[in-house]
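example protein:
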Amino acid sequence: METSSRKKVEEFIICECGCTNHYLYFVLNYDKWSENKYVDCSVHFYLNPANSFWTRLWLGIKYILGYRYIECFDDVLINKEKAEKIINAMQTYIDLENSIKEINKV
């Protein structure tokens, strides 16, 4: 991923099943040129929004009490190309962290 002039890198990965509700969304925010140098990475997973807050709360309590089948969460199936996108996103994060550390040393 090219990061020289941008302040945000995004990677959107849809599940192999084709359902657009099954996804991973990587966001890298960074600023290596200002006084406050930073880089952060966030990964967003699918959470079924069809259930109400109270239903999700009840399911969360059931999960805490030991029930292991909770219908709020789902899987994201990836193939080799999508796995490489994830690896590239994480490598970009590591490279940005290292470049900020180098800039701070100077």
